Request: fold
Amino acid sequence: MTAMPAKPGLLQQISGLPQRGHMSWFEIILLAICVAWVAFGIAPTFQDVVVLSFLFAGLALAWNIAGGCAGLISFGHAAFFGIGAYTSTILFLNYNVTPWIGIFVGAVAAAVAGAVLSLICARLKGPFFILSSLAFAEVARIIALNWSSVTGGAEGLSIPPVPDLANMVLGSKTAYEALTLVYLLAAYAMTRWLEASRFGFYLFAIRDNDEAAAAAGINPLMVRSAAMALSAALTGMGGTLFAQYFLYLDPTYVISPELSFQFALLPAVGGLGTAVGPILGSFLITPLSELLRANLGNAAAGLHLVIYSAGLIVVMLYFPSGIAGALEKLKPRRPQR
Amino acid sequence: MNTIFQLVISGLLIGSVYALMSIGLTLIFGVLRVVNFAHGEFLMIAMYGVWAFSRLLGLNPYFAAIAVVPAMFLFGALVYRIVIGAALAKPHLVVVFATMGLSIFLQNVALMAMTADLRDVPPIFARSISIGGIFIKGELLLGFIVTLLCTVILQWVIKHTFLGKAIRATVQDGEAAKLMGIAVPRIFLITFAAGSALVGLAACVMVPLFSVFPTVGLNFVLIAFVIVVLGGMGSIEGALLGGFCVGVVQSVSAYYVAPAFGQLFFFLLFLLVMIFRPNGLFGQKGAATLGMNE
Reply:
């Protein structure tokens, strides 16, 4: 093995992240394919996989706002996902509030939780922030598990499977494809807007060098909290969509550390801090893990996860800037103007 | 009054066992400045090793230390060579995700090889020892003694040997250590392997107390993180004190509130420490910025 260079500091390495992407033809075509896919009802046998790929692409984009753009690597986003899912479901089951309203109430609740987390962890960086967000989600999980009168505890909550558009229980999987695609496009538009906006520049500045950013008059605490709240709100909306699709919620999945890891992995594999990376990550990994699970699930328990995790390690070691980064390298270089 | 004594003593004893499995993690963090998310799975593999050793040879699981500790040292060195070393040269996040991938990988390899069944060894001590009306499990008392010895020996190695000096130099300033002729990558390798070997020792103490199954590491890795942060990352005696804290909080809250809330309390304790004392309860100044300054 060659001599190891000094470990790059967080500041140095994060500066290597992309700042502001331009919408490329590749992205436009990719999104157009998604729309056409749903509009023309392609591959009806894989609709479950498509719904999940869209949903997780949206969730990956939501995570990327905090993790990729603001540098807040959170392993606790399952808490926001759970808060969104439980808020809309409890409102619907107990107070007969339609999830179309509940999704926004859940988003607000998740945003508040996100702001609280970033205020708690205002001084923390790197591994400390990661571990604190993990602990935060564990607290949420233990509360959801033991507060059975409201959350149904370990038994979970079920939404009656009666198709009714007014209650966001859709009759066909194509309708769910459309719904999750709208979510994905909304998250994408939000990311693009962020990249172009003044607020987005604040985020990149804080991520790359918070001391310099603070010296330039940006309030790191406010900007971090706002980014986390936005990311949490989008994640909470994804939670509601998840609940409305599966019509069942239980804390051991919805607020699990595994789910938090999943939210972080998809953008990391696809390309952190880019708008297209999280989508690519989800489109690659979600179908792969679903298909591996479907085909190998019975043959050998755990084999699909062995393949999946070995692939993950290889990708991380050889393509540290993700698929989007690898694609970027393939592009012919334009001369500097 | 007796109840509270009993709870505190049991908490201290179980806490010392938790501390033993956390020392490896704190050592690896302090030197490599890497959070090893696969630490729990290292423990799981070592526990399977101990279980298999005592099952196949029909020996007391404590004797498995002779085989499992060196085996874990080699395993740690191998993992370092294949995954960690390569990831360290890459951006900071790569190693986080690589160790997470490693954790999922090891869990599922274990699931395929060993199935999800719980594996146990028969109890070592037939009865609890009673001292002045306080009952003490023999296995826990032994774990407590092993932990104390281990802490003392490690402290001595760190303070008084050349290797220890090189490790401390690397912790303080990797760049300067390199300039002084310390082979930093070798120190990294040795530390990572030694951290894994310590997990092997912890496994010998833990197998008589806990069942082994593929996801057993998940239960313990979060406890280990809490202990390491409480004690101040990289501090060995801090890990011991952090372990005592977690053990006592767990046993007292499990008795007075509800067993399910025992975990809630130490995660809350963890968050409170993060808010008010990010350097850890017993950590040295500046511990919270270890690993991100350059």
Summary: The longest helix of chain A spans residues 220-246.
